[in-house]
Specification:
With about 180 residues, the chain is α/β, with parallel strands linked by helices. It has 2 domains: about 60 residues, Double Stranded RNA Binding Domain (2-Layer Sandwich); about 80 residues, Winged helix-like DNA-binding domain superfamily/Winged helix DNA-binding domain (Arc Repressor Mutant, subunit A, Orthogonal Bundle), CATH 1.10.10. The chain has 5 helices and 6 strands. Strands 3-2-1-4 form a 4-stranded mixed beta sheet, covered by helices on one side. A two-stranded parallel ribbon has the order 5-6. β1 and β2 form a beta hairpin. α2 crosses α4 and α3 crosses α4.
Length: about 180
């Protein structure tokens, strides 16, 4: 059974989901893939895990690196779960590229190469935003791409962590015909 609770962050309302093992989802309301891994039958209830998650988020949004870990229950494919575990290792206030993550995965699997695009697909399906810090993943040229909550939220999260650099840029869509 999954339990849910609402959280009001400085960047917008969020929905938290958890089971008895750990957090199964954390989304900005209305973001891409919102609540996609939420069970059809869930119950709104304040559990200990949900209360701890709110404390973690309060600390995070106050501009401090949370001093404790939240138990997580990944709900993706094996590949997505592998990518998400790597995301959890990106230090607070730092970033990593999709290509760097692909290289780590390739080494783990004893492969010569892994697709950065495949990594990007897994990063984009992260259903536990912020705690699994997909906002810390940037393009190889420093571009801020691929955040389901929107680029403006990604920028604010990086600024909050003081990991925002002027070298990041948002690629503009071409208007050429």
């Amino acid at each position: 059974m999954q339990y849910t609770s609402q959280y009001q962050s400085p960047l917008g309302d969020m929905l938290i989901a958890a089971n008895d093992i750990g957090v199964t989802g954390l989304w900005f309301v209305g973001q891409k893939y919102f609540a996609y891994s939420l069970d059809k039958e869930s119950e709104e209830k304040e559990t200990a895990i949900l209360q701890d998650t709110k404390k973690w988020l309060d600390m995070y949004f106050s501009g401090k690196e949370p001093s404790f870990k939240i138990p997580l229950q990944f709900t993706g494919t094996d590949f997505q779960n592998e990518v998400w575990k790597i995301l959890c290792d990106i230090p607070y206030g730092q970033t990593m590229t999709y290509g760097e993550i692909a290289t780590i995965l390739a080494k783990k699997k004893s492969l010569n190469k892994m697709s950065a695009q495949a990594v990007g697909g897994a990063v984009g399906k992260n259903g536990i935003t912020i705690i699994i810090p997909c906002h810390r993943v940037v393009g190889s040229n420093g571009s801020l791409t691929g955040y389901a909550g929107g680029i403006s939220k990604k920028i604010e999260l990086l600024k909050l962590e003081k990991g925002y650099k002027d070298t990041f840029f948002i690629p503009q869509k071409s208007t050429a015909i």
